[in-house]
Design brief:
Low-confidence stretches: 19-31
Oligomer: single chain
Strand content: 15-25%
Structural class: alpha+beta
Distance between the termini: 78 Å
Strand order of the largest sheet: 1-2-3-4-5-7-6
Helix content: 40-55%
Mean pLDDT: 88
Length: 403
C-alpha cells in the first residue's frame, strides 16, 4: 500500500476517534461517528464566489457596522460585482448582504443575496440567497416548503449546497428569490409578486399627514406595497389588480373568498401549524402572487422558521394582524377546510407516508449537512410531537369557532 493511502486511512481513524470522544463529552448531542463517513457520499451542488479585494473589504465593513450598531438599513444592502463559478461555468453576478436579524451577520460568510447579470440561471433562477444552515432551520424549513409544493401551493425552492466565498468553503441553504422562475416551476401565468414594504416593520411609517406610525399592525395597514418582479411585467393593469386585492385584504375591505383560493389558504395554514412555521404569518414576511386567471391572491411559502415545538395555533399567534385573523377565521368555508386539513396532516399516517416517499432525498440532504456539521440532528421527531399536540388540542380549538 502506498504511503499516501496509509495516511488517508490513519487520518480517517483519528477523525472517527475524535468524534467518538466528543460524543462522550457532549452526550446530549447524540453524535454518531458515521456522520462523517456518510458525508463523503453526498453530491451537493458547488458554487464558488470570487469577490475583488476592494469590494470584499467593503462588504466586510458593512457587516462589521451592522454588528457594532445592532441594526440594519438600506445602506448595508448595496450590491457589488462578483464572479460565480458553477459546474465550470463562469457567471457574472452582483452580490450584497441580506437579512434583518443579527444572526444573518454573525456567520462567516454572512447571509448573501445574489442576482445574475443578463438573467443567467443558477439552479433554475436568476436571483437567490445563501445562508448558514441554521438561519433557515436546517431541513425543517425544507420540509415545510416541500409539503406545500406537493399540493401545488407556491413555495420558494430551498436546497443544501456547498459554496465558497474567496476560497472559504461552507455548506449552506440556497433559497430562490421572488422571480418569474418561481412561477414557471408551478406552471403559473405571469403575474405580480407583491408584499407590504417590510423595511417599515422596524422603522415605522410616516404618513402624508406627517404622523409617525410605529404600531406594527397600523404600519401593516398603511405602508406602501412593492412588486418584486415589476420589471418583467409589461402590464400595469395587472399590477394594479393585484395591489388592489392585497390592499383590500390588509384593510379588511373585501370578503376572503374574493381574495384567496380558500382551499389553498386553509391547507397552507394547517401546514404552518404542523411545522410551527409562524414566521411566515408576520406581515413583513408575507409574499403574495396575483393569479390573473383565477383573479385571486396566493400566499407564498417562505421563511417559516419553525424552530420551536408548537404550543399554540395560528389564530393565537401574536404576529398576525387582527384584521387578517378576523377576516379569515370568520369565513365558514375557510374554517371547515382548515380544520379538515389540521386533522389530516396531524395523523401519523400522513407523516409516515411523507417521510417514506421522500426518504432518499432527505437522506441525501442530511449527508450534505454532515459534510460541514457532523453534529447536526434533523429533529424530525419534533414534527411528530407537533402533530400529537394538534390532535390533543384540536377539539377545544374548534369549539372556539363552531358553536
Amino acid at each position: 500500500m502506498r504511503l499516501g493511502g496509509k495516511r488517508t486511512i490513519l487520518f480517517t481513524i483519528v477523525l472517527l476517534l475524535g468524534y467518538g470522544f466528543l460524543s462522550i463529552l457532549k452526550p446530549g448531542l447524540r453524535i454518531r461517528p458515521y456522520h462523517f463517513l456518510l458525508s463523503q457520499f453526498s453530491s451537493a451542488p458547488s458554487l464558488d464566489l470570487i469577490i475583488g479585494k476592494t469590494d470584499f473589504e467593503y462588504l466586510d465593513s458593512l457587516k462589521s457596522d451592522v454588528l457594532e450598531h445592532q441594526r440594519t438599513s438600506v445602506n448595508h444592502k448595496k450590491y457589488v460585482k462578483a464572479l460565480l463559478i458553477i459546474d465550470g461555468e463562469e457567471v457574472n453576478v452582483k452580490i450584497r448582504l441580506k437579512g434583518d436579524r443579527m444572526a444573518h451577520y454573525e456567520t462567516n460568510p454572512p447571509s448573501l443575496r445574489i442576482r445574475t447579470i443578463k438573467d443567467k440561471l443558477v439552479l433554475g433562477t436568476n436571483k437567490f440567497s445563501l445562508h448558514a444552515i441554521h438561519i433557515r432551520n436546517g431541513l425543517h424549513e425544507w420540509i415545510y416548503l416541500d409539503l406545500l409544493a406537493e399540493r401545488d401551493i407556491l413555495s420558494v425552492k430551498m436546497d443544501i449546497v456547498e459554496y465558497s466565498v474567496n476560497g472559504r468553503k461552507t455548506v449552506g441553504a440556497f433559497e430562490e428569490h421572488f422571480t418569474d422562475h418561481l412561477l414557471k416551476r408551478f406552471d403559473r401565468p405571469k403575474g405580480p409578486i407583491i408584499a407590504i414594504e417590510e423595511k417599515f416593520y422596524r422603522q415605522g411609517w410616516i404618513g402624508i399627514d406627517s404622523i409617525v406610525y410605529t404600531d406594527k399592525f397600523e404600519v401593516c395597514r398603511r405602508a406602501p406595497l412593492k412588486v418584486f418582479n415589476e420589471k418583467s411585467l409589461n402590464n400595469s393593469a395587472l399590477i394594479e389588480e393585484g395591489i388592489h386585492l392585497l390592499d383590500d385584504f390588509r384593510c379588511g375591505l373585501s370578503a376572503v373568498e374574493d381574495i384567496f383560493d380558500i382551499d389553498k389558504m386553509a391547507y397552507h395554514y394547517a401546514i404552518i401549524d404542523l411545522m410551527g412555521a409562524y414566521h411566515n404569518l408576520s406581515w413583513h414576511n408575507q409574499r403574495f402572487y396575483y393569479n390573473s386567471i383565477e383573479g385571486k391572491l396566493e400566499l407564498i411559502g417562505y421563511d417559516g422558521l419553525g424552530w420551536k415545538s408548537v404550543t399554540e395555533f395560528s389564530y393565537d399567534h401574536d404576529r398576525v394582524p387582527p384584521t387578517i385573523n378576523k377576516a379569515l377565521f370568520s369565513n365558514k368555508d375557510f374554517l371547515a377546510r382548515y380544520f379538515h386539513y389540521l386533522h389530516e396532516v396531524s395523523t401519523n399516517h400522513f407523516l409516515d407516508s411523507y417521510f417514506e416517499e421522500n426518504l432518499k432525498e432527505l437522506e441525501e440532504l442530511t449527508r450534505r449537512i454532515y459534510s460541514n456539521d457532523p453534529f447536526y440532528e434533523n429533529q424530525f421527531e419534533r414534527i411528530y410531537s407537533n402533530a400529537q399536540w394538534i390532535r390533543e388540542n384540536l377539539k377545544e380549538y374548534k369549539k372556539r369557532f363552531i358553536k
